[in-house]
C-alpha cells in the first residue's frame, strides 16, 4: 500500500490487524470474515519501524517468545518449539547470531530478528508498517531484496505500507496506490508504472511528463490524437473513454524521451524545445526543457544517445514513440513541490 501521509494506508493496516473497526465492508483472512474478531484472535502479526525487541533476551529467545506463549494451547512440546525457531533463524540467516543480544546486532540484523519473531508462528498475513524507515539508504536497498527472498521462502502474504515509490516498485507483486482515503489503482508494478489509471498515480509513481490538452479524435484502433505542446500528436489511449474534444492529460516518462539536434524521422512524434537546465546524475543526464508556451519537458538521456555538448538556451527536438505515451483523464497536475511536500509529510 503506497501513498502520501494521511491517505489511509496505516489505518487500513490497523483494520486488518484488528486495532480499528471498518464502518462498512469486510476484512477476510484466508476467506474467513474476521471483521469483528479481536486482534489477539486474528492470525496476523505486525512488524513496525521500531522493532521492539526484548533487550534482555538473546536472538533465539526473542524469536521463541511467540511459540513458547502458545505452546500449551497449541500442544507444542519443547522440541517442536526449538525446531520451528531454528528453522526460522536459518531462513533469516541469523543462525550464527542466535546467542547474541539485540544491542550486539546491526540495524539490518535487528530487522531480521523482528521478522523471524513475527513469522515463526506462520500467520495468515504479515503486516509491515514502513519497517525499513530506520535504516540507512544502502541497508534499505539490501533489506528490500532480503524481504523478497524471505517472503518467497516462507510463502506468507506480506501486506507492506510505504510512502517510498522505489521501494514499492522493487518489492511488490501488487501495489495499491492510495490518495485521500481512496484507492486510486491496484495493479502490478509494471501496470502501475506503464499504465497509470489517473494523473495522481502517474505523478506519484516515478517521474512523468504530464501535459494538459484535448483529445481531438481517434487515429485508428491503437492510437488517439491529442493536442498538446502546440501541436497534434498520436498517443496510446488510456482505460478511461474520453470523447473527441474532451479535456485530457498526456503522460510520457522522461526515460522514454529522446533528444536530438536535428528533426527526427520515422514513426516518432516530435516537438521543438529549448534547453533550460542540465544535471548530471551518473547513469543519465537530466535535461529540463521548455516546449511550446514554456511547457516543462523532462528528459533522462543515457550515453547511448550520443548527444553533443548542450548548454542552456540550445534549441533541440524531443521525440518519443507513440507507444511511450498514454492519454489520461484531465486532472490537476501535481507540481514537483506538491509531490515533495507529500513525501516530506510522510
Fold blueprint:
Elements: H1 9-17, E1 28-29, E2 32-33, E3 44-47, H2 59-69, H3 71-74, H4 78-91, H5 107-119, E4 125-129, H6 137-154, E5 157-161, H7 165-171, E6 175-179, E7 182-187, H8 189-194, H9 199-204, E8 209-218, E9 224-228, E10 231-237, E11 246-252, E12 258-260, E13 269-280, E14 285-290, E15 296-301, E16 315-320, E17 325-329, H10 336-345
Parallel strand pairs: 3-4, 4-5, 10-17
Antiparallel strand pairs: 1-2, 6-7, 8-9, 8-11, 9-10, 11-17, 12-16, 13-14, 13-16, 14-15
Helix pairs in contact: 2-4, 2-5, 4-5
Notes on the protein architecture:
The protein contains ten helices and 17 strands. The protein is elongated, with a radius of gyration of 25 Å. The model has no long low-confidence stretch (mean pLDDT 89). The protein has a five-stranded mixed β-barrel with strand order 8-9-10-17-11. By secondary structure, the chain is an alpha+beta fold. 28% of the residues lie in helices and 28% in strands.
Percentage of β-strand residues: 25-35%
The beta-strand count equals 17
Structural class: alpha+beta
Query: What sequence of helices (H) and strands (E) makes up the elements?
Result: HEEEHHHHEHEHEEHHEEEEEEEEEEH
Q: What distance separates the N and C termini?
A: 13 Å
Poorly predicted tracts of residues: none
Tally the helices: what do you get?
A: 10
**Helical proportion, percent range:** 25-40%
Amino acid at each position: 500500500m503506497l501513498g502520501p501521509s494521511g491517505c489511509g494506508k496505516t489505518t487500513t493496516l490497523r483494520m486488518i490487524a484488528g486495532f480499528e473497526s471498518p464502518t462498512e465492508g469486510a476484512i477476510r483472512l484466508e476467506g474467513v470474515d474476521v471483521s469483528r474478531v479481536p486482534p489477539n484472535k486474528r492470525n496476523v502479526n505486525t512488524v513496525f519501524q521500531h522493532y521492539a525487541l526484548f533487550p534482555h533476551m538473546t536472538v533465539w529467545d526473542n524469536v521463541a517468545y511467540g511459540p513458547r506463549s502458545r505452546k500449551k494451547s497449541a500442544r507444542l512440546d519443547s522440541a517442536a518449539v526449538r525446531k520451528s525457531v531454528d528453522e526460522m533463524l536459518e531462513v533469516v540467516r541469523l543462525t550464527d547470531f542466535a546467542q547474541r543480544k539485540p544491542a550486539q546486532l546491526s540495524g539490518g540484523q535487528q530487522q531480521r530478528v523482528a521478522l523471524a519473531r513475527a513469522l515463526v508462528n506462520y500467520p495468515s498475513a504479515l503486516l509491515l508498517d514502513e519497517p525499513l524507515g530506520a535504516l540507512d539508504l544502502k541497508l534499505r536497498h539490501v533489506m528490500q531484496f532480503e524481504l523478497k527472498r524471505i517472503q518467497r521462502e516462507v510463502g506468507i502474504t506480506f501486506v507492506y505500507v510505504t510512502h517510498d515509490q522505489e521501494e514499492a516498485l522493487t518489492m511488490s507483486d501488487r501495489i495499491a496506490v492510495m490518495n485521500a482515503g481512496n484507492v486510486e489503482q491496484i495493479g502490478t508494478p509494471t501496470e502501475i508504472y506503464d499504465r497509470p489509471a489517473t494523473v495522481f498515480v502517474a505523478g506519484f509513481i516515478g517521474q512523468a511528463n504530464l501535459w494538459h490538452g484535448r483529445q481531438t479524435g481517434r487515429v485508428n484502433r491503437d492510437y488517439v490524437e491529442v493536442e498538446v505542446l502546440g501541436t497534434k500528436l498520436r498517443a496510446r489511449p488510456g482505460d478511461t473513454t474520453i470523447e473527441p474534444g474532451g479535456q485530457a492529460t498526456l503522460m510520457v516518462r522522461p526515460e522514454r524521451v529522446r533528444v536530438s539536434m536535428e528533426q527526427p524521422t520515422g514513426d516518432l512524434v516530435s516537438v521543438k524545445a529549448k534547453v533550460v537546465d542540465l544535471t548530471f546524475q551518473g547513469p543519465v543526464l537530466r535535461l529540463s526543457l521548455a516546449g511550446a508556451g514554456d511547457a516543462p519537458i523532462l528528459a533522462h538521456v543515457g550515453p547511448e544517445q550520443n548527444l553533443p555538448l548542450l548548454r542552456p538556451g540550445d534549441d533541440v527536438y524531443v521525440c518519443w514513440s507513440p507507444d511511450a505515451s498514454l492519454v489520461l483523464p484531465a486532472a490537476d497536475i501535481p507540481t514537483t513541490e506538491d509531490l515533495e511536500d507529500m513525501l516530506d509529510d510522510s
